[in-house]
């Protein structure tokens, strides 16, 4: 095998960062198991004390909740899809395809939501368009459909799987290398699991699949891929701009908050176990503890160490500021205000903050729609269906009730501008938004009925 495991310089630079962002997003036991990577050890701190602090760590996962909020809000209504053309069989294919894009029963909206969440965590995710391998060459499209060779499917790859690539002068892929690994057992009776690593190479026309188990590497499969006749690498990336990459914006703040909150918790815990202080001119050799007593001289004094608490208040205020900053840099300043400030923010200020959040959501919606559009158009071109594909929606996020949108549509139609096309487009937009959860074939029939008037 040639050096297919070589990593792109950009991949090598980011892979450790992606692992850190995955931990910050997941939280829970995953974060605790890797807490030694994030809990700062104090200068000359005894090892046993640091281990005790590691055993007591906790993590307030603000950034994970923020990412999930964006995912839930953006996909509250699925993107509206339209497939217009005279080929009824092709439209029927896409009606079934968007309900099961990966051959595992995953709907296109759920597939895209996962890719979007991955993009907020690692800055990007990837979709591979593939077709089943045909046994021989089909004589007609009907034979191809009957054999299942035209049944496109999508494969999801996180950013960590794309290890190497090359771009042309237009920014398009010339070739890519994807690396995956899985645990396998040949038989249930086998005692040990083994890791199998695979590399998938794709260029504009061909693919090669390599497998490595232990120290043995072999070529598993090769040939032309599904987009070969388009002269296109079948991988499509959903890339999030740096300014909208949430983990990259809030990750360092979240780690700082983690260290400060754990330091404060440790200090408060230690403060509960006050240390006795003896003021005496005599040599002190008595043991002190719950099962002992001490004997003091006439001039001796006894007391307990107890912090005044000023540094605790400073630390608590700093934690609140960090929490606010995490939400602010994620464009959710209205959601992450001070926990003790109540409703001091004006209504106008809250409205302005939410308008910023809406614009960010629209930018995310545009990125998702563009990814879906590119993938569906590639499938359409590879299958030679000749359909016109539209992807709409993801620009309203339940800020206003649907009745407001309906009222706006009525007012626009009342202008009677004399455009039949305008009336049809308004009808389709309202229908697709209101019936976002309906099956795609039902949506297609409704769109067709609106088009026919």
**Kindly state the mean pLDDT as a whole number?**
85
Structural class computed from helices and strand pairing? alpha+beta
Give the N-to-C terminal Cα separation.
Answer: 61 Å
Number of helices: 13
Order of strands in the sheet with most strands = 4-5-6-7-8
Find the count of extended strands (DSSP E, 2+ residues). 12
Report on the architecture of this protein.
By secondary structure, the protein is of the alpha+beta class. The chain has a domain at 400-453. Helices cover 45% and strands 18% of the residues. It has 13 helices and 12 strands. The chain has helices at 9-26, 28-33, 47-55, 62-74, 88-97, 108-122, 141-147, 246-271, 310-329, 347-383, 402-414, 420-434, 440-452, and strands spanning 80-84, 124-130, 153-158, 162-167, 173-184, 194-203, 206-213, 216-224, 235-239, 276-279, 301-304, 388-392. A 5-stranded antiparallel β-sheet has the order 4-5-6-7-8. Strands 3-2-9 form a 3-stranded antiparallel β-sheet. α11 (402-414) runs antiparallel to α12 (420-434). The chain is flat and about 105 Å long. Mean pLDDT is 85; it is low at 338-343.
Topology:
Blueprint: H1 9-26, H2 28-33, H3 47-55, H4 62-74, E1 80-84, H5 88-97, H6 108-122, E2 124-130, H7 141-147, E3 153-158, E4 162-167, E5 173-184, E6 194-203, E7 206-213, E8 216-224, E9 235-239, H8 246-271, E10 276-279, E11 301-304, H9 310-329, H10 347-383, E12 388-392, H11 402-414, H12 420-434, H13 440-452
Antiparallel strand pairs: 1-12, 2-3, 2-9, 4-5, 5-6, 6-7, 7-8, 10-11
Helix pairs in contact: 4-6, 4-8, 5-13, 8-9, 11-12, 12-13
